[in-house]
Amino acid sequence: MRLVIAVVQDQDSQKLSDHLVERGFRATKLASTGGFLKAGNTTFLIGVDQTQVEDVMGVIRESCQAREQMLNPMNPLGNGVEPMVPYPVKVQVGGATVFVLDVETFAHF
Ligand code: 2BA
Q1: Using only C-alpha atoms, what is the Rg of the chain?
Q2: Tens of pLDDT along 45-78?
Q3: Residue range of the domain that includes 48
Q4: Which three-class secondary structure state does DSSP give residue 10?
Q5: What is the enclosing helix (H) or strand (E) of 15?
Q6: Distance from the alpha carbon of residue 100 to the mean position of ligand 1, in angstroms
Q7: How far is the CA of 97 from the centre of ligand 1 (A)?
Q8: Which residue of 33, 43, 97 sits with most ligand 1 atoms within 8 Å of its CB, as the best mutation to test the pocket?
């Protein structure tokens, strides 16, 4: 068995959720926050047989799109200190960041 962990943008979360259910995949959605942008995103935990990993990857690929987001100047120290990023910059986020892990044990009681 494999555990597919997919970090997706909140805008794609409902679409991905619907597509996974339509295709018969079970998933858990966790509310998460990106470490860099400090913006909300959604993390899916999807447990599948190893033969289904490519199918799940396809569903994720179809459901999630890349978007540009503005990263505004951040100043973690506050008063009078130059921000780490002194001007707004565009970053491309997603479609999805996906990890596939081996599952040692799976139990469902
Ligand atoms: P964030 O950490 O908020 O990152 C949002 C976007 O900012 C990233 O998009 C990337 O384009 C940019 N970015 C992130 N860290 C950067 C850095 N050190 N320097 C320059 N640009 C940087 P994505 O790569 O598509 O990532 C989207 C979200 O996926 C991330 O949100 C994070 O929540 C998750 N993620 C990405 N890579 C990860 C990893 N190696 N481990 C755990 N989570 C990851």
Answers
A1: 17
A2: 999 999 999 999 999 999 999 999 988 776 555 5
A3: 2-74+86-102
A4: helix
A5: helix 10-22
A6: 17
A7: 8
A8: 97
